[in-house]
Specification:
By secondary structure, the chain is of the alpha/beta class. It folds into 2 domains: 150 residues, Rossmann fold (3-Layer(aba) Sandwich), CATH 3.40.50.2000; 180 residues, Rossmann fold (3-Layer(aba) Sandwich). Helix content is 37%, strand content 16%. Helix 6 links the parallel strand 4 and strand 5. Helix 10 crosses helix 17.
Length: 346
């Protein structure tokens, strides 16, 4: 029999991209349970962005409650916990706190079979669905077996991004502001830095176009040491490590486009409706079938078939499949964005 909920806790404590791709499920839960309250449990670094999502009523940072999960749940009025990511401690705490509905994927971990009473069963590795679609499997206990098509996913994103004056001051002098998030913190197969350099050099021929390099402080240092020619171009600014995640979100929102491989800011950019281009290898599990940028103005580039030996090795930073995505192919996308903005301004 389908369940109903009044207050749902969704747990997703991993990387920002994974969290972003969980949010469409929250929007659907609002449709299935009118008036429901949704709390998202995540890591502190991701909380800033989640608070911009209109479908999330409250955000709880795991660091603030991890030493007293049972106490937190007992003090709350939460009646449903969705383990959107395996979490042994939370599964046990939900059971001990007497949470009425405990939803988890029983195919992932044996403890979810034991402690979850509203079990779903699916394999991410065997699925042909995108990560954002796969998360809708957790809604089966509500009687909802519909998995939205990819072109439906953008309609489930609802954000209110505040305007940031500091970002405006940086972006204002330039006619078109393009963000390159060149690194992935090891979470995606990267487009070679030489290709980003060739792209930035070609963009020097485009009047008014300025390139912004974003990333962590460590990634900014890597760029200074390993890509001095890119960092030194007159049309390029390295702002890695200078922004909080909240400010980076506003910066992306107020810019004109973002290019990256499979990393959190790529999915963030696509979700908030920015022009976004994702660069991917064709090999599972890194392929765009699972991790493509999905948004109202998002697109992706990828070879039709794997073209290099050992492409599936997860420890590779880049590969020939990524090198085969030419700067010229990316330039054509950017030129289309520039023309689109110019047409809108006429």
């Amino acid at each position: 029999m389908p369940i109903t909920s009044k207050h749902i806790l969704i747990s997703r404590q991993d990387n920002i991209g994974d969290v972003i791709l969980t949010l469409p499920m929250a929007a659907r839960l609002k449709q299935l349970n009118p008036g429901v309250r949704i709390t998202l449990l995540c890591r502190a670094y991701a909380a800033e962005v989640v608070r911009y999502c209109n479908d999330i009523d409250d955000v709880v940072e795991i660091e603030s409650i991890e030493n007293d999960l049972v106490g937190y749940l007992k003090r709350s009025d939460i009646d449903t916990v969705i383990l959107a990511q395996p979490d042994r401690a939370l599964a046990i705490a939900s059971f001990r706190a007497g949470i009425r509905h405990r939803i988890g994927n029983a195919r992932q971990k044996i403890y979810q079979l034991i402690y979850c009473n509203r079990r779903v069963r699916f394999s991410k590795g065997l699925s042909e669905h995108h990560e954002s679609q796969i998360n809708f499997e957790f809604l089966r206990p509500y009687g909802d077996k519909h998995i939205p098509e990819r072109n439906e996913i953008p309609s489930f994103y609802h954000f209110s991004i505040p305007h940031d004056e500091a970002s405006s001051a940086l972006l204002a002098p330039h006619a078109f502001n393009l963000i390159l998030h060149t690194k992935s913190n090891g979470h995606g197969r990267e487009w070679p830095i030489e290709s980003y350099l060739a792209l930035a050099q070609e963009l020097r021929r485009q009047p008014g176009v300025h390139v912004w390099l974003t990333g962590s402080p460590k990634e900014g240092e890597w760029l200074r040491e390993n890509a001095p020619e890119l960092v030194g171009l007159p049309n390029v600014s390295n702002v890695c490590g200078t922004q909080t995640l909240a400010r980076l979100t506003s910066f992306i929102h107020q810019a004109d486009g973002l290019i990256a491989s499979g990393t959190g800011p790529l999915h963030l950019s696509a979700a908030i409706g920015q022009r976004t281009l994702g660069l991917f290898p064709p090999t599972r599990p890194m392929h765009p079938g699972r991790w493509a940028a999905i948004g109202k103005r998002a697109s992706n580039l990828c070879l039709a078939e794997a073209g290099c030996v050992g492409c599936s090795a997860r420890d590779k930073i880049t590969c020939d499949c990524m090198r085969a995505i030419t700067p010229q192919a990316v330039i054509e996308v950017v030129r289309g964005w520039i023309e689109e903005k110019q047409a809108a301004g006429r």
